[in-house]
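Pasting as-is:
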Amino acid sequence: MNRITCVTTGLLALAACGLDDAELEISDTTTASAALTAQPTTVYNLAGRTSPAAAATAVNIDTRLTITFDAAPVLGSSGTVQIVRKTDDAVVDTINLARETDTIGFPGQDRVRIVNVDRLVSISGNTATVVPHHAKLAYGTVYYVVIAKGAFTGVALNGTPFTGIGRAGNWSFTTKPAPSASLTSLTVNDDGTADFRTVQGAIDHLTKNIAKDVAVTINVRNGTYPELLFVRGKNNLSIVGESRAGVIIQYRNYEALNTGSGQAQAAGSATPTGGRAVLLAEGVDLLTLNNLTIKNTMLRSTTLSSQAETLYFNNDAGRLVAKNSNFLSEQDTIQLRGYAWFFNSLIAGNVDFIWGSNRVSLFENCEIRSLGDTANASSGGFVVQARSVSAADKGFVFLNSKLTHGKGPGPRAGDVPTGAGAASYLARSPGTTSSVDNVAFVNCQMDTHIIPVGWAYHVAGQPVPNPAVATAASGWRERGTTNLGGAPLNLASRVGGHLLTDSEVAGGFSSRAQILSRFGGGAGWNPVP
């Protein structure tokens, strides 16, 4: 068959070329999209049943679609949901019912995050939620929704048996005008008036329109934001929640779904490399996360690879600030490179839940909580696995922090063992000489879940660390440890670590300015709360 290019304004203009859509290579002023499915013609009373509401105006371009039936629908085995531009019936997005691939980032961004997602269509009670692919809708445009017959079965909509919906059903909406390109502060709200519905929508807008080093802020209102995030090409970005417990950014992402730590790639790449974290920050400096919760909802499993970060900060020379926030997962909760300062925050997990090929990561006035393992409720875990890139850098430092424990997130997960059965270790080694096991606990409080030997030094099947003999300069280090009541702990049973002296602490571990002094080739970094 000969290929023919036909410039059109939409699928209705195909007849002008005398060919059907299967024979055409469509050149559209927006995006070449899938063909419009056969449209159901049933008309429903949509009042109070859809979001956006039928004929709604000023709709955010990153909206989600919801439709509430008279009873709980059954997700069909075939069919799609499509979003169609009303002026010319051009399909701008086709959402399948099963596993999908999505591209996170704005059109034209130098590199984007491409990921697998379990599904973009979900059901909760009587309501079906459809998440459009990222960045598919345009500003100031009228769209309508097409749901194929059989996509949702066994239900009625305001008394009318549901057989799909098409243009005749008139679930249409108009998107709002674009926010000013000069704004340096944006608001995100999942269900109220705001510049964007999603955090990523705001990230995209600021990254696209504001110079790389100009400070910008995203203010996130209380709500739950089920999304994966990607920050690239924008320094001095602050994401600030309305409240620490009220702003929850979460997603179920994990190794078996998206293999690897994650990296950006060219748009249109065939194999997703976006990684298993909820938030991937790549090549940026001074990213600030404040007053919010980021959660990876993946539970540890005996059948799936359960590595599941909330955050991967990937910049060997960059800085991350995390204040007054919660970071929750079970395995590999936060992975860090470069320099990071966590202040007054909670980091919770079970296996290597603080790790990475970092320079210096300071956890000051933080709670480090070991959670019961969903896959093995009777086991302890490992707090840190350091793969620091230089022996001269301090690695992972915990200053004036608390090590606590609690019940795991799974329905059958209990707490970690404590007391005489304690089995949680401060750190374990990857067992390689290509990285350094630099970890220090200074003036920290520890509960009874921490095993008396402290470090997994060639025990529990773990290798000897690098260096094998710790010193004040490098390796596993500790000083001033107490119980939660403030009484000093007897550290005589510790194996494999160096007990810092008061003068060694005073010379390098007593303040954030000392601990972060090697940033910028020795220029130093002293962030403030």
